[in-house]
Design a protein that fits this description.
Length: 236
């Protein structure tokens, strides 16, 4: 357990924990294993797995960010640019977890990693909210983006599997930051679906307002996830 982190947040045994072992009531599965509960050899295997998952997350999201931001700029799509920026923040989140597990005592760095993840979410929410409001007030309208539609569809297929692997490993290892990173990846899945709907509505029906509205949804979800990461509440 990292210094200064409420044990109940990562082990599900604190006063805020429910009977199902979840500190914030977001799931009914067993709570992450407390530090020392995992066999050292198994912990080493899980730590290596976390590093591999982090590498995969970074690689995919770098590509996703470049494609989304480029396509969003060409199409003047706030939602698509916001999605690309979320990918950048996913990279920052993964790098924070990579930094944590690069040290001899990953648990000692967990609180800092969670703070980095939270601040990343808040930065994304602020930028996307401002740009969405500007667009709704007439700053510009989004054009059709075939590349954006294809990207959203691919991410909608890839991200659930990556998130599930991260979550299982993080919970078994008892790492709140690894589980938080899995929630960031899961957020990308939700955003992919929302983005896909918004882009299709704009392309098929010419509903340009759908783009900034979708972007505001992205901002709202990012704020929620940031608050949970800051509090260490990512339990599932």
């Amino acid at each position: 357990m990292s210094e200064g982190l409420d044990p109940g947040l990562t082990t599900g045994t604190g006063p805020a924990a429910r009977e199902d072992g979840c500190a914030d009531g977001c799931c009914a599965s067993p709570a992450p294993a407390p530090r020392g509960a995992v066999d050292p050899r198994r912990r080493a295997v899980l730590t290596r797995r976390v590093r591999l998952l982090v590498a995969a997350t970074i690689t995919y999201n770098v590509v996703e960010a470049v494609v989304a931001i480029t396509a969003g700029t060409i199409a003047s799509s706030t939602a698509l640019i916001g999605f690309g920026l979320d990918s950048v923040i996913e990279v920052a989140s993964a790098l924070a977890v990579a930094w944590q597990f690069a040290g001899p005592d990953p648990q000692a760095r967990e609180r800092t990693a969670l703070k980095v993840i939270a601040v990343s979410f808040f930065a994304l929410a602020g930028y996307v909210a401002v740009e969405s409001v500007r667009t709704l007030l007439g700053a510009g309208t989004a054009d059709h983006s075939t590349v954006g539609i294809a990207l959203a569809a691919v991410s909608l297929l890839v991200m659930p599997f990556l998130s599930a692997a991260q979550r299982r490993t993080g919970r078994e290892l008892g790492s709140a930051s690894a589980v938080a990173d899995s929630r960031q990846t899961l957020l990308c899945t939700y955003l992919s679906g929302v983005l896909l709907v918004g882009l299709l509505l704009n392309s098929l029906f010419g509903w340009s307002w759908a783009d900034p509205v979708v972007a505001l949804v992205i901002a709202a979800v990012a704020v929620r996830e940031g608050r949970e990461a800051w509090r260490g509440e990512h339990c599932c």
